[in-house]
Amino acid sequence: MARDAREDVAYAADEARHGEAEPKQLDRIASNENEIEIGEVNLRSRHQLQRGLKSRHIQFLALGGAIGTGLFIGSGAILATTGPAPLFMAYLSMMFVVWVVMNNLAEMVTYLPMKGISIPYFVGRFVEPSLAFADGWNYWYAYAILIAAEATAGGIILQYWTTAVPVAVWIAIQLLVILFLNIIAVSFFGEAEFWFASIKLITIMGLIILGIVLFFGGGPNHDPLYFRYWNEPGAFKEYLVGGSTGRFLAYWTAFVRAGFSFITSPELIALSAGETVAPRRNIPKAARRFVWRLAIFYGLGSLVIGVVVPSNEDKLLHGDSNASASPYVLGIARAGIRGLDHVINAAVLTSAWSAANAFCYSGSRVLYSMAVNGQAPRIFARTTKRGVPWVAVLFTLLIGCLAFLNVSNSGAQVFQWFTNISTISGFIAWIVIMVTYLRFRKAMEYHGLLHTLPFRTPLQPYATWFTLFIITILTLTNGFQVFFPSEWSASNFLAAYITIPIFLALYIVHKLFYRTRFAIRTEDVDVLTGKKEMDDMAAADVEPVPKNWLQKAWFWIA
Q1: Rounded CA gap, 73 and 390, in Å?
Q2: What is the pLDDT of residue 34?
Q3: The pTM is what?
Q4: Which of 102, 114, 314, 328 has minimal CB crowding within 10 Å?
């Protein structure tokens, strides 16, 4: 099928414009042609130089996106199911996965940090268009389900204060506020997200400090907790079967569920590359610091949970319960610190609400972008006079209305369904990222350009192959519980596995319709378009030199 020349350059499609002809020449378009547009990417020099985000901004954005309901609420469900040791081990294990995915993205976007880039853009350019199409819809699907998950979490949190108000009312209020901010008051969105991300970061830092204080007996009763709850009721809760197998299954279950906390967070730094000042200097810095800071927050945060609350606490979110509290809130209440539990619960509520707001914004923009590029119905490209894609917002929020399943099911059960669906969607997205990186790296080697990468990460490509194997196994076994006769549930099976056939259907239908090859041939992968512009921009960058020790410390932190 013949295609537009710009699409050929953007996605380096594996068939020639007139059937099976000679391989494409990869000589990039002359650098003086500054009016080029590559699909969704505009390479005009003035357009590419308009950037405003610094390293600290994108780290803040990514950290704020990663620290939220997964840690504040979901960790309680993991603790109640598996115990404190698997919880701690799972978050540390998942941090390695996030580190590898972050490195993959950082290498690609540091090489081509063009404004307008997206993950599907790189997939289509380095792998093939059908996978890019399925990946774009997968991201939208993940964001839409995450709205429902966060709205569910908000309903759970609000029931800590009162159960007199039906949960449907709380969910409706949250969704209406999200609708208002995403259509009418969208100019307030960025400022609101800044302050709510600040609240989340301050909250988790305060909780870690509080956990250390309680560990050594600094609470009102001056009773040191140490690792009391690791001894009784125990570090591990054997899961489904007894003995060492039960303990391993507990860890594996925690490992799968820990993924919910991190999905879409590594992508935030990558997607902001096009808006970042001096991206080839700031993206590597942000990528390295983001992972280590996230490891500190989640490592210490999950350890604190196991210190301040036992895994057999009745109010933890688990099974078919309607438990309504974060494990941190329960730990504070157990320590006898009056009033603080309500403050933290309010902070956790703002976390869930702001996350849902951000997911609606991100999901609607993904859908709008696909509509503009012909990968979704054109109706989703309709905007208001102020440029808000209102149809995309409404359709994305419509999927978020699945949160009303809480009305006829327990909050814990519904929250688990949504976390399963969105986690597997996130895992699939990471698999696609790693496949894209491996194809990108192979093409760079083929064209003798690997040494020109401005950012190289350790253990590659071996770390990517290993992580790809682990995430694939996690994806396929995420719902292993349902295959135990006593645990079978049709709804749980669908929540665990429905995402996989949906993704495959999108991929196969697009491939059959457009008759694309399995993958772009290595020699045809375009690794040059946009490189000259980015090289020129990097050459013009002047790295600031600290004038005193205070500035040196600030540059190291930020």
Answers
A1: 31
A2: 40
A3: 0.84
A4: 314
